[in-house]
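Honest question from a wet-lab person: if I give you the sequences of every part of a complex, can you actually get the arrangement of the whole thing, not just the pieces? Trying it with mine:
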Amino acid sequence: MGDEILNGLPKLGTAAAGIAVFFGVLMLVFFVLGKVRGRFSGPVAGIAFLGPAILLLVAGLVVPAIQTIGKSTQNAAGTKFIGWENYAWVFGTDTNRQILTNTFMWLIIAPLFSTLFGLTLALLLDRMRRESIPKSLIFMPMAISFVGASIIWDLVYAYRDPAKPQVGLLSQVAIWLGIENPPNWLLLQPWNNFLLMVIMIWIQTGFAMVVLSAAIKAIPGDVVEAATLDGATGWRLFSRVTIPMIRGTLIVVITTIMIATLKIFDIVRVMTNGNFGTQIVANEMYAQSFVQFDYGRGSALAVVLFVAVIPLVIYNVRQLRKEQAIR
Amino acid sequence: MSVEAHQLIAIPQPDQPKPSIPVAVRKTLSSPWATGFVILLTVLWTIPTFGLLTTSLRPSEDANNSGWWTIFTNPSFTMNNYSEVLTGGDTIPGGILPYFFNSFAIAIPAALFPLALATMAAYALAWIPFKGATTIFFVVFALQVVPLQMALLPLLQMFNLGWSIGPITVVPDLDLSGTYIPLWVAHTMFALPLAVFLIHNFIAQLPRDLMEAARVDGAGHFTIFWRIVLPLSVPAIASFAIFQFLWVWNDLLVALTFAGGTPDVAPITAYLASIKGTYGAQLDLITAGAFIAIIVPLIVFFALQRFFVRGLLAGSVKG
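Yes, you can. This is the full assembly:
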């Protein structure tokens, strides 16, 4: 064990050297340009401060995004213009229609349930005295990578011959409940899709809970008091006062989780690699680009993701603006 | 992309006392049912992770042939899985430790670089008056919309082959594959829109008097940035640094695309994803490997919860 740790140290050394070079260059530039005085000092500082970020953004996002749009109209190797053919493939084949349907189901179900659980928890916790322990534990999955979460849940869904002792919790619970032959859950179409969504819901509920909880705490005390004096209690208070007061935040939470859901590929890749009818657009994009090396189709799928995200983002930002205008 | 969430929690600010809900209201609303439901959900949410930890501590024979819940009736624990996964054994040659080090070697620079560049850019946009500052800020803000997937392929080709427009070579072929550099650069590029946006929100709110006083004293932009802005921005910078470190640590997409699968550079997530395919049936080993991968974020989470929540919410939909 000692040797392996020693073998790892040069890697950290490489990282330290990278950091040293990076900040060394920055310091040097700062030192030299800091000497500039007079009427050029403003523009020089502007370029020195802003230049590196702009350069990287242009080279790393703007140009590649434009190139991807270009590639999406080309053949697999990117040598020939083929117009809309890749898009026709995305929307025209049966396999891909299932991929699009799956992605759509993810987009609706994962955000809806995450928000529902998050909202319920936020409301109930608001009234509890010791809220920090449940809050921490439910928020904890957010710290875990999608890969880690997938392995955690793979254990829950694990399949063993029903005659033998079970290792998967879900199968064991099914047996306890009297189901004698629990299926191999991850092969069970179309339900396996929902089992994968459970992982996303498990992760995102904490996010919804924390944001909504903050919104509920921000409702002015006198509003609640006035409503209670008018005789509102329990469910009525919740549906007539609390929900309308946090409506904007609710929408922002849902759209935020939707945007995240649209783009994740890790869960599907690690759990089923898109087999057994569980493929989604983000993972198919990776498979087409880096497994099949069909850059045209991969790029077309990326563009589909991009276009699907835009209205969500616009709606999301608008809602936020409205919120701020009110406050 | 996560402007949204960030604005909900806003810039770091001093703790405010909770608005007091009248005791009567609190009483009518709380009930044993509510408490019971919360406890139930908390337990449900915790069980899967607990199962992973337990399985990783069981002897191979037990872990693969009986459920982890049987430890309550038949307790037996071992650290063997961890020593085998860490340094390698018959099943997993080489072990996970090289990838664990790679994750640190990728994530620490990939958190610091965008942070430095974004803080500089944010200062320029907020405090160096020039034409088009607002436009540039808006464009950077809007770039958060672009999913990572849109940039992966061309960026990979740029790293592997260089990039030229016609006969002009803009980026030469630097032969960077097999080094950390493509990963650092890619993560830095993808982090910048969010980082500039968040840090700008903070830096723009620093008191104007402070800057003007410094300028009257003859301080240039470099001095003001170094002596005034940086020290004051520590809370915002720390939140983002933690978020970005964890984002990179947990990332799989960028890792798979730019690192390949070699022990030289691939991070722990990429390795886990690959052994999940090969040794996924070896529950004792895969669970130990997964726990090693998630222990770092969990330590960060429990140690720095305040910063963590703030930073994580801020960037929850990045990429």
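Two things worth pointing out. The radius of gyration of chain A is 26 Å. The domain at 86-326 of chain A is CATH 1.10.3720.10 (MetI-like fold).
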